[in-house]
Write a structure and sequence with these properties.
Elements: E1 17-18, H1 25-29, E2 36-40, H2 41-48, H3 52-57, H4 62-80, E3 85-88, H5 94-98, H6 119-124, H7 126-140, E4 146-150, H8 156-167, E5 178-183, H9 186-189, H10 192-198, E6 203-205, H11 207-215
Parallel strand pairs: 1-2, 2-3, 3-4, 4-5, 5-6
């Protein structure tokens, strides 16, 4: 009310941002939240307008994408330091990728949100993970406040495989960097104990995908 004095309560719940736009890093950091809960590499790659596999990998321009990711992640990590910044690896649906430069050869699916996306795509095309991990290794040399989470994991074996690939870049999961998983599929949610036994520093619940996979209803269907 007009003459009501605000009560001096302190929020005990930590507030994290979804922040993936390097140009907004400093302004976002000034909001004085507790860090970045989701930095999506998708957004950084979308800004290039180019397909991450058919343009950068097939044309042997991996270093160009590594540099773009390194610079972008560095700016956000630096702006929020020492607060945590959680980096989520790529999760493009095939219809999204088709609109990017060199995306004409992208797989065409009837139900892209239920299709070839998330961590399994990067395990099928490991060059994508290697690009992201190389960029993360570069950032880690200067900024220790970053962590990694994997999207749309269906089974703990996929999570384990991704961590093994990370080791190839000289990074020991849970020691050199914190590692977590998105829980967006019922199968992963039912294996939460296995994820914990495997080592899981963050469990991020993705409600939109978890809902669509649980109800077998495409989240884009009105």
């Amino acid at each position: 009310y007009k003459h009501h004095q605000p009560l001096q309560y302190k929020c005990k719940t930590k507030i994290y941002l979804h922040q993936s736009i390097p140009g907004m890093a400093e302004k976002a950091a000034a909001l004085k939240t507790d860090g970045v809960g989701l930095l999506r590499t998708n957004i950084i790659i979308e800004e290039t307008g180019k397909h991450p596999y058919y343009y950068f990998v097939k044309k042997k321009k991996q270093q160009e994408l590594i540099n773009i990711l390194t610079e972008s992640i560095t700016r956000i990590a630096q702006a929020f330091a020492p607060k945590p910044v959680w980096i989520r690896t790529m999760d493009f649906s095939t219809d999204e990728l088709a609109f990017l430069k060199a995306g004409a050869g992208e797989t065409k699916e009837l139900n892209p949100l239920l299709g070839w996306r998330g961590l399994i795509r990067e395990l099928h095309q490991p060059e994508l993970l290697h690009i992201e991990f190389e960029a993360i290794a570069n950032v880690l040399k200067r900024h220790k406040n970053i962590g990694v989470i994997f999207p749309l994991v269906r089974d703990v074996s996929e999570y384990r495989q991704a961590k093994q690939i990370l080791k190839q870049h000289g990074i020991t999961p849970h020691k050199d960097i914190k590692i977590g998983s998105m829980f967006e599929t019922p199968s992963a949610a039912m294996q939460i104990e296995e994820f914990i036994e495997e080592g899981c520093d963050l469990a991020f619940i993705g409600m939109n995908d978890l809902t669509q996979y649980t109800l077998v209803a495409d989240r884009m269907n009105e």
